[in-house]
Design goal:
Strand content: 5-15%
Low-confidence stretches: 224-236
Mean pLDDT: 78
Number of helices: 27
Shape: elongated
Helix content: 55-70%
Length: about 750
């Protein structure tokens, strides 16, 4: 282990001690140093400013001279204002002489020349030169567009041929003539070496330096023969350097002290005080170390105990962490373990509570009233639930609920439902214990306070459940249904009440969702029998397969009867499954194209509907939509078949003549001029039915209608539907309906 905290504690005091001693020792040194620095800076600034003013004055005088001569001398104006004719030798001589006089007026002037744009000639003190042959032609081209300039930065200059060695100059340009349209330019070049000599003569000091910088920050003293600046020292790092800027030339004058023994001697005087201060600081550090070590002893003992405990427990020891980190980690670990232990206890307690409720409700555990109260006390359920009502809350359309909300949202809504039930119970002075026993179902034990064996408790509990249901409908985007088992049951009969509530929920298919259903309410409802509807489903599917218009009437009649009877959700699902099976069976008798359309379009939707639909109304709406879509698809397939028109004509002929006793397959073959086998095959592929079977179905259907709606004798009905022999008709009728014509009429009349 690294003793980081020891050193942290030690060094946390040291800066205070150091600052206190250092302020006392160095206060005199700083005062002297600052005073000395201000004096040096002031002197350097004065020297630099005076020197810059002298240089500006010199350059300004040169500029005034050039401007006055260009304005007052008629020969200069003649060059720029006259015709662009060649200049005479005499005028050339006079102009050269004048330029020499201007050059000799100031020693730092290296050269002066004039450029005429109209004649494209350059006038120097040595004569007139075409601009194309002039060595400084590039500078003229660059400066002509600008016209008047201040003094430019140092540049290489060649007045003669390009082979001559260049010198460095600073240039001034002025447009000519001065007071009219620009037709030329006057250029004055000052020698860089002469400027440097002027500066050196103006400022001579063994302790300081003076430097002139151009507008780009390059020193005038650092240009070599190639025109590039040499490596220069960093003047800004020199002691107490100052810089003065010239608004006239845009140059900088920098002055400062040289780093030499004279300056260093002043600072050496203060070293004695520095040494004394360092000695005092070292003594103080030693004393702080001793005191810190004594104060650190309790922390050291704690760390040793933690390491011993960790080592005895088989934990990691000797880690490269500081003492406070070790203590912090140990405390954090203890708090985390305590928190995790507390969470685990709560989790175990919740699991035990839910397990007890599940065992009692499922009937896996018989428990007396005293044992029930003791279990509730042991599991910290502070409620009186000696004779509770059992209510089961179910989320309607749970599959839509799962698909519409995320998992976290589902848990949130379930938590809200649980809290709403408990809050309404508290407001109604009703004890409530609610738990989610299944993903879509919550079970609640409800017992109004001081209402044991009170007949008014049942309606109060029902009203409580109805308030919960209404709140969900108004505030959430889904609905719930709540079922209540029989009241006034002892704890050892809770499972009966629970199963009654679950059974009551099954009748949501008939009674509708988003409601409260008491088990006592469904006892008075008329219960439906599934087998009574099987033949109706078969007849409906038969008519649907043959595309008869009567299937819609049969469909409405079937679901109208289902709505009047009281079916559970399981029974409703069974009837829907049987309808699916009959459709599958009948369509498999059609051609391959019909079967493929059924498997891909209709069958998956019916299979999904079996698990989703919860009420008769929902089943009716969705089933009718599926059948209508399937009918349209089958119709398109039939109309695209080449034999459709022919088979449809044969079917219409049968519909009109099915009551003819002589109607047979041979008669149809002769009437339409085709073989019996060919006609039978086409009809079978189109409608999944043989011609004989179709004729029989038409005759039996007509016979059933006559038996239901008339009082005709059996012999008359037999003749009306195309049979000659009553015994043959009875045999066919029994085979088709499972009963005799007489029994069928008696059952229908009853």
């Amino acid at each position: 282990m690294r003793r980081k905290w020891f050193y942290r504690l030690l060094f946390s005091y040291t800066p205070i001690f150091f600052v206190t001693i250092a302020v006392l020792i160095f206060i005199t040194y700083f005062n002297m140093n600052q005073q000395f620095k201000r004096q040096i800076v002031s002197a350097n600034h004065t020297y630099a400013q005076q020197t810059m003013q002298m240089l500006d004055s010199l350059l300004s005088s040169i500029e005034k001279l050039a401007v006055n001569e260009a304005m007052n001398d008629p020969r200069f104006r003649m060059i720029f204002e006259g015709d662009p004719a060649p200049i005479s030798l005499y005028d050339q001589y006079q102009l050269g002489l004048k330029l020499d006089q201007m050059k000799n007026a100031f020693s730092i002037i290296d050269s002066i020349y004039m450029y005429s744009d109209s004649s494209k000639m350059v006038i120097t003190n040595q004569g007139v030169i075409p601009v194309s042959d002039f060595a400084d032609r590039q500078f003229i081209e660059s400066i002509y567009a600008v016209g008047n300039t201040k003094w430019l930065n140092p540049r290489p200059f060649q007045q003669e041929s390009a082979d001559s060695k260049p010198k460095y100059v600073v240039s001034l340009s002025k447009s000519a003539p001065i007071a009219s349209y620009k037709q030329g330019v006057l250029v004055v070049n000052a020698d860089l070496d002469s400027i440097i000599s002027f500066l050196r003569d103006s400022y001579k000091s063994p302790y300081g330096y003076l430097d002139l910088l151009d507008s780009d920050g390059r020193s005038f003293f650092t240009f070599d023969s190639t025109g590039l600046p040499e490596n220069t020292r960093t003047f800004s790092s020199a002691p107490y350097s100052v810089q003065v800027h010239s608004n006239y030339s845009n140059w900088y004058m920098q002055s400062g002290l040289r780093d030499n023994a004279v300056v260093g001697s002043f600072f050496a005087v203060t070293n004695i005080w520095t040494i004394a201060g360092v000695l005092i600081i070292l003594f103080g550090i030693a004393w702080l170390t001793y005191v810190t070590h004594r104060n650190y002893k309790p922390i050291s003992n704690i760390v040793e105990n933690i390491e011993k405990f960790t080592s005895n427990k088989g934990g990691r020891s000797g880690l490269e962490i500081d003492e406070m980190a070790l203590i912090e980690n140990t405390l954090a670990s203890l708090m985390l373990n305590s928190s995790e232990h507390e969470k685990q206890l709560k989790k175990d307690l919740y699991i035990k509570q839910k397990h007890l409720l599940m065992e009692v409700l499922e009937g896996n555990r018989m428990i007396s009233a005293d044992a029930w109260r003791q279990e509730l006390h042991n599991l910290e359920i502070r409620k009186t639930l000696d004779q509770p009502f059992v209510a089961v809350l179910e989320i309607d359309q749970y599959l839509d609920f799962v698909n519409h909300f995320t998992v976290s949202d589902q848990y949130l809504f379930k938590y809200i439902l649980q809290k709403v039930m408990m809050e309404f119970s508290e407001a109604n002075k009703t004890e409530c214990w609610a738990e989610w026993m299944e993903p879509n179902r919550m079970v609640a034990l409800l017992q109004p306070q001081d209402t044991s064996h009170d007949p008014a408790a049942g309606p109060a509990v029902k009203e409580l459940c109805n308030r919960t249901r209404a709140w969900v409908q108004e505030n959430l985007t889904f609905t719930v249904s709540i079922a209540i088992g029989d009241a006034d049951v002892a704890t050892d009969n809770l499972s009966y009440s629970y199963h009654e509530a679950v059974e009551a929920l099954q009748y949501k298919a008939a009674l509708g969702k988003n409601r409260v259903i008491a088990y006592s309410d469904i006892a008075t409802q008329q219960k439906g029998e599934i087998y009574n509807y099987l033949q109706d489903i078969r007849d409906l599917v038969k008519s649907y397969k043959l595309s008869e218009d009567s299937w819609r009437h049969q469909f409405n009649q079937l679901f109208g009867n289902l709505a009047n009877d009281c079916f559970t959700k399981t029974e409703m699902s069974s009837l829907l499954s049987y309808l699916n099976y009959q459709l599958q069976k009948e369509i498999m008798e059609l051609g391959d194209a019909f079967q493929l359309y059924w498997r891909e379009e209709a069958q998956p939707r019916l299979n999904l509907l079996e698990g989703q639909a919860e009420t008769v109304g929902e089943v009716r709406i969705q089933t009718e939509k599926i059948l209508l879509d399937l009918e349209a698809g089958l119709k398109v397939i039939r109309e695209n078949r080449s034999s459709h028109q022919l088979i449809n004509t044969i079917r219409e002929y049968i519909d009109e003549n099915y009551d003819d006793p002589n109607l047979s397959l041979d008669q149809l073959s002769g009437h339409f001029g085709m073989s019996t086998r060919y006609i039978s095959r086409l009809f079978k592929e189109e409608y999944g039915e043989t011609l004989i079977g179709y004729v029989t179905d038409k005759r039996i259907g007509k016979a059933k209608l006559l038996l239901e709606t008339t009082e005709d004798m059996l012999q008359d009905i037999v003749e009306k539907v195309g049979y000659l022999n009553p015994s043959s008709f009875i045999r066919v009728f029994r085979k088709a309906t499972g009963t005799t014509p007489g029994d069928y009429r008696r059952k229908w009349q009853k």
